[in-house]
Write a structure and sequence with these properties.
The structure is a homodimer. The first copy, chain A, is of the alpha/beta class. Chain A has three domains: about 1-75, 434 Repressor (Amino-terminal Domain) (Orthogonal Bundle); about 80-180 and about 310-335, Response regulator (Rossmann fold, 3-Layer(aba) Sandwich), CATH 3.40.50.2300; about 180-310, Rossmann fold. In chain A, about 40% of the residues lie in helices and about 15% in strands. Chain A has helices spanning about 1-5, 25-35, 35-45, 50-65, 70-80, 95-110, 125-135, 155-160, 180-195, 210-225, 245-255, 270-280, 310-325; strands spanning about 85-90, 115-120, 140-145, 160-165, 175-180, 200-205, 235, 260-265, 285-290, 305, 335, 340. In chain A, helix 6 packs parallel to helix 13 (about 310-325) and helix 11 crosses helix 12 (about 270-280). The radius of gyration of chain A is 26 Å and the shape is elongated. At the A-B interface, helix 1, helix 4, helix 5, helix 6 and strand 2 of A face helix 4, helix 5, helix 6, strand 2 and helix 7 of B. The structure holds a DNA duplex.
Chain lengths: ~350, ~350
DNA sequence: TAGAGCCTGGACAACGTTGTCAGATCCGGG
DNA sequence: CCCGGATCTGACAACGTTGTCCAGGCTCTA
């Protein structure tokens, strides 16, 4: 996207000038200590070859002036920023907290800082963010894709920016990605309901253009087909996430001509709303949700879920990223992490007609 | 802390060399397009004074080479990084997700990126992080303090780094801070329990060296004193957060010589564990928690909480930060945001002896 | 047609740091 | 007394960008 480059929209321009308030530089320290510039550099970086006496003088000057090395300049000189970028969908989503935290821990272990931003599920914003991070020369990127075309990253990949896609695969480029087994997890979850006697099972999920949603839908269909149950259209609700519409969808499939006796919820937000709807029903309806939710065990009945391990996903992704940077890793791979069915009651309810 | 400056511990050193894979520079673009360096800069920044024909040639070269401006160099030249740092306690804590997101939104509105890190409640790590961010010359810092001495930031403040403390006040320096009314909220919550007939009320909270914990404890004591109820030591458990110890504490105060009939939980993690403990009791014990928790309304009984508005706190803090950068804001202030008591059932249970 | 004024483009320095290299100092031994 | 070597120190260029300033070519008018 040339626009991103052509138009002068750099954020810094909008901020008042002030060049961060004239901080002291190594030159200032050198002048005050009565030594050369390079000697200060040596002291600051703990390089050998400085007499204790000189070092003391320099250190004094540093403390007196409140000098702090300017890492921007250092980066410019050295070529590595020791920071990685994380583009996720929404920091406020409880699924991404632990993921983000796991990435941070790995980054920290490698001495890198984490710069992050939310795409809000908007492909343009994802691209804008990813490119902004590249412009800052992050050493690597962890991306939870919002869009499905990532060719805009080709020059970056070629330039050696380590990149790992998470939660959803990269679009139209060959890159590392770390996913949950969405298909298998959903299939198992639905099969679990079938095993408990359900045949009319509803599915509420996100837009199928989102990879995870599509895979989970596929898992649902597969489980139904394996059991020889034809799926009715009225049992499926796709592209629905905001609470009111989930509510409508759930109420719809509970009251149609062939009402469902169980619901499979395609993600944590859907699950929460469905729980609310089911709590209002007199009839007991079974529920299995994709993604674990806090306190799921304290509800009555406890909520059976297909859990993904967000921390493990983040950790795996970040570790691969640093192995790319090491040079240990060359060929992009697609890694699928298993999910885990946690039974707590709601998924084991028998069908009630 | 001189060490942070003296020793050569810069993260970049640990990563393999490779100077981000030889990315093309403006010079390369200029050579390819057959124009001068500055002309490329003009095109890239949308500055006037370039013929359409020249611009086209430059643009072609940019696309062909996959050029991306190096913002590190730009930063070095311009003096502003258009990024702000966020030091929080734990990204995985559900309280900080929305807070962080709110800060990000404001930053984005001002065209700035967000760099963040978790201190894990460790003062040294907080300092290390904050100083690392300053070394990168972030324009501003939002800090959720882990320590209680922030004099290490004095040179930064003097140098014009905008700084706002959040959730807990700054220690030993004069700086902006945005807090919840922890004292008032806790007092109201406990008063609520008292109003429902309770007299033996337990308090489980974090270490009083943490400001929020201390304030909430103070609120608890104030409410009790207002009601003329002497507090017994066995009713209070301080410095306890990990689940097992919270469990022990709760069970202890429920079974002692003068067992409590209600518990005030000092933060969300404590609340969750207490809910688990109470679910196992035969006797019904009232509960009010500080911080809202998801699904609190679906439990039986619903959980009454003193809610803070994490998003509002984050937004307020970030807005103040950018007003500092504008120069609109000079004098540091302490802002306390009100809390809100949300009654859902658990706090309205009558005492059961 | 000459001069003034405008438009376009480029040379150059500067931002603050680090790497290279050579100069200065000091020591002991021949 | 001088020299070799070890040790310490500093001058200088470079990283990739932007700001300043000037040159050259054009148009327009007198």
């Amino acid at each position: 996207m040339p626009e991103a480059i052509r138009r002068s929209d750099h954020p810094a321009d909008r901020l008042a000038g002030a060049r961060y308030g004239n901080r002291p530089t190594m030159k200032d320290v050198a002048a005050r200590a009565g030594v050369g510039l390079k000697t200060v550099s040596r002291v600051v970086n703990g390089e050998p070859g400085v007499t204790p006496e000189t070092e003391r003088r320099v250190q004094e000057a540093i403390d007196a002036l409140g000098f702090r090395r300017n890492d921007s300049a250092r980066v410019l000189r050295k070529g590595r920023t020791a920071s990685i970028g994380l583009v996720l969908e929404d920091l406020a989503d409880p699924f991404y907290g632990p993921l983000s935290r796991a990435v941070e821990e790995v980054a920290r272990a490698h001495g890198a800082l984490l710069i992050n931003g939310s795409s809000a599920e908007d492909p343009d914003r994802e691209q804008e963010l990813a490119l902004a991070l590249c412009a800052r020369r992050v050493d690597g990127l962890v991306i939870i894709p919002a869009g499905d075309d990532h060719r805009y990253l080709e020059p970056e990949l070629k330039a050696g920016v380590a990149t790992v896609f998470v939660d959803r695969p990269a679009g139209k480029i060959d890159a590392d990605c770390v996913l949950s087994d969405n298909y298998g997890g959903a299939r198992d979850g639905v099969a679990h309901l079938i095993a408990h006697g359900h045949r009319r099972i509803g599915f509420i999920g996100d837009m199928p253009r989102i990879h995870t949603a599509a895979e989970r839908l596929r898992g649902y269909r597969a489980a139904m087909e394996d059991a020889g149950i034809p799926v009715e259209d009225s049992w499926m609700s796709l592209g629905v996430t905001d609470p009111q519409r989930v509510r409508d969808a759930a109420e719809g499939m509970l009251s149609g001509p062939s009402p469902v006796t169980a619901i499979f919820a395609g993600n944590n937000r859907v699950t929460v709303t469905v729980i609310r709807v089911l709590a209002e029903q007199t009839r007991r309806v079974a529920l299995v949700g994709f993604d674990d939710i806090e306190l799921a065990d304290l509800l009555e009945p406890g909520v059976t879920v297909v859990a993904q391990d967000a921390a493990a996903i983040g950790r795996t992704a970040a570790e691969r990223l640093f192995r790319q940077l090491d040079g240990t890793l060359i060929t992009p791979e697609r890694i699928e992490l298993p999910t885990r069915l946690i039974t707590r009651g709601s998924g084991e309810l028998p069908p009630a007609d």
